[in-house]
Design brief:
By secondary structure, this protein is mostly helical. It is about 70% helix and about 0% strand.
Length: about 280
């Protein structure tokens, strides 16, 4: 018993040590960026880790908002991502649920198509998409940015929902049908509540996809009042290419919402909380 107890303690210490090391690999670049963004304007990035620059230049953040209407760009990005996330969750989950209800041949055909679409590079459809959106009159509007959300945004999201719904016992679906539930009611009352973790993951990935999208707004938006934050940061770089503290301050503004979002929802990924979050226990 004593040997087993020591072994469990050793495994726990090793697990936490490795977890801290892996976390540091992701946290240290963020800390470096935050520290470098507070250096005096005009200074190059530090060659070594500088934990606390002296003096702190908090005015860098005020200055980037004075140079460009970043507040407007942040609002535009939040608007696009805020609309895209619920649309994607609905369309991707519906597509994934529909695939689980098909016969084996139809299901395998759609799975193969989804995998093929995943390996198609985005650049291969840029020209065709540009011509299509311009013909439909979607040019210089958020509709061009949100159109992919109507199709699930990415085949990966559809596959994630499909795999999640496939793990639900068929008996639950059959019981719901015997109670008179239709396909939409089964999707809403059975499939989605039992796939809470997948909903959260797809929601986060969708937010990051639209929040950090640079190419699509650059292609389809011409009015500066419609620009999203990634395009705005590109303008900041063009205004002053060598002022690294200001550029890194803009990068921090871009990164902070993603970090905060993950910090809010990360508890759902913990093993002891995930099942409770999914099954409402």
């Amino acid at each position: 018993m004593q040997v087993n107890s020591k072994r469990r303690i050793f495994h726990a210490i090793a697990f936490h040590a490795v977890s801290i090391l892996i976390s540091a690999l992701f946290i240290l670049p963020l800390v470096w960026m935050a520290s470098a963004s507070l250096r005096q304007p005009g200074l190059p990035p530090p060659r070594t880790m500088e934990w606390w620059p002296e003096p702190l230049a908090w005015s860098n953040y005020n200055r980037i908002f004075e140079m460009l209407p970043l507040g407007r760009y942040i609002f535009n990005s939040l608007l696009v991502a805020g609309i895209a996330v619920p649309i994607t969750l609905v369309t991707a989950s519906l597509a994934g649920f529909a695939m689980t209800q098909l016969n084996r041949r139809g299901r395998e055909s759609l799975l193969g198509l989804s995998v093929v679409l995943l390996v198609v590079p985005t650049v291969a459809v840029w020209v065709a998409r540009f011509i299509l959106f311009r013909t439909l009159g979607l040019f210089n509007s958020y509709a061009a940015l949100l159109a992919p959300a109507l199709m699930g945004s990415s085949p990966l999201f559809v596959l994630l929902f499909f795999w999640s719904f496939r793990r639900i016992p068929r008996e639950l679906y059959d019981a719901a049908r015997m109670d008179g539930a239709g396909p939409l009611e089964i999707w809403w009352r059975v499939a989605l509540p039992l796939s809470g973790a997948t909903v959260i993951v797809v929601g986060i990935l969708t937010f990051l996809l639209y929040w950090g999208d640079f190419t699509t707004p650059l292609f389809y938006l011409k009015s500066q009042t419609l620009y999203t934050l990634p395009v705005g940061l590109r303008q900041l770089q063009e205004l002053d290419r060598t002022n690294w503290p200001l550029l890194l301050a803009g990068a921090m503004v871009m990164t902070l919402p993603s970090v905060l979002l993950f910090g809010i929802v990360q508890r759902f990924f913990l093993p002891e909380n995930r099942l409770a979050g999914i099954y409402g226990q």
